[in-house]
Structure formats: C-alpha cells, structure tokens
Amino acid sequence: MNKKEISELKKQFTPDNCTISRICGCYVDSEKEKRLEMRESFLSLSDAEMFKYFEIFKKTLSGTIGKNLLNLEFPLKAEAEDGEQEFLLRLKNSRLTDDALVDECYDKIIELYEQKDANTPFFLFNVTMQNHSSYSEEYDNFHPDITVEGTSSKILPNYLSLIKLSDQALENLIEYFSQADEDTIIVFFGDHQPSNSVAAPVWKINGRSGDSLTEEEEALRYKVPFIIWANYDIEAASNVETSANYLGSHVLRAAGLPLYDYRNYLSQLEGQYPVLTAIRAENAQGISTPVKDVKSTLQDYMTLQYYNIFSQK
Fold this sequence. Notes:
single chain; about 325 residues; alpha+beta
C-alpha cells in the first residue's frame, strides 16, 4: 500500500462514508476458551461506540510506511486451498455473516501462541476494547452480578461487573504464564479512566459532582495503574509514578535489556520530569504544572519524538 491508498481508507472512517457493515470480536481466557462473543451491525452501534472505533481504525493506519506501517507479503503457499490468504478472502467475502468462519478466525488467532517455535521469542501488543463504554447497553450473554446501594444507575453496576471479569481474566493469564518454562513478562496498563457517566453516581453518593472537584482531584481522573509482572525474579517496586512515554524503558530495565539511544534520552528526561503527559508535567521535586508552561524546555524532546514516530530511517 502507498500513502494515497492509506488516505483513501481513512476517508471511509466517518458515518457518511463508512463501508463497514459488521463488527465481530471475542474475549478469550487463559485456557483459550472463548468466554464472550460480539457480532453486531456496525451502523447500529451508538454514536459514542462508532466514533471510538473510527478513532482506533485511523490510529492503526497512522505513521510511516516501512517503519510502523509494514507491507506484508503472503508466501505462495498461503494462496493455496486452506492457506492464510485464501481463508482471509473467504472471511472478507462472507461479510462476517458466516458464524463458522468467524469462529475459525478466532481459533486461528488463539493457536498463534501455541504454534510458535519454542526457540523463537514471542511479542504480542494487544489493545482490547473490553470494558469500554458505553455501559448503558444490555446484552443477552452478559448479566451484571454486582449491585451498588444508594444509586439507581445501571451504568455503574455494568462497569463494576465487567471490571470483575477483567480482574479474573488477568488472574487467569498470569496463572497460565506462571507455569510456562519460557521467561515471560506481562505489562498491563490502561489509557484512561472510565467516563464521567461511571464516576457521576459515585460522586453523587458521596455528595459531590464533577464540577466540585479540586485541581488535585481532577488530576487524579487522568491517573491509571500499571503492572509489570514476570514469571521469574525481577526487582520489586510499588507506588511508582511515571507516564506512558517512559513505560517502555521500565519494561526494558525489568527485562535486563539495554536501552537504545532514544530510550537513553528519555531516561535523562525522566530525571527532570518523572511524569510528562500532554496535559501536565511533574518535576523531580513533585511540583506539577501545565505542560504548556514548560514547553520551551521540551523542544529537543518534541523534535526527537516526531523523528521517532515519523522518520523512515
């Protein structure tokens, strides 16, 4: 694919130009069992869900061809009957309406890890929409089992019940890899907290509202936990304050791997600003300030960040 073709694809990620008719997905536990499945008409999704998917689709096509956008060629055997390309074409032509084909696709993905060569490292970056809003929808295959006293909200119990499932899934995942012979690291983090529709009932129960939050409390709304776990001994740490741009360096150090030049630069920057996001910067003394107020000191960082994302070298 080239830039023009990618641009044309991105144009389709709007309600007016959308050519996506159906969306499918499933949640798989550590025993490789499909626990929940979702098959819906894309255009019947709520506006919030639809635009969130559009945002994700656009991000997957963002970047530089040859760096973080790669053209992958199928080997000739993939074009044969029952080959990967032949299967994907059948899946495409079915418009995701053939449940058996969709299930087969899930099974092929599940088998990826088990089929890898024992001496080959395996890296998986998985972005999941599990537990994403909206939480106001009702589903035949999901029934919330957590109730909250003092509120009539349906959204909060839905969210908490789904978080419970995620917690169980994470436990199963870690339990599975704790038994693996191969050294394994799992990094688990979120990109944001739940929306105000989830938080509002909690505020109300406590006699508060979103409008009454202090600056410090508002800042906490942008804070999420992260976990770096390994099935072998690594240095233990807790209450670590960091930001997503530095997380990769923490993982490399935990794995005992060397930092490359850009990560070395970030390590130096982390000494000056241990927390640095698009909204705020926290210096080594723990003083937080809007990032726009220290922008003049971050010119090198912004240049290197742009180069790291978009350069083809």
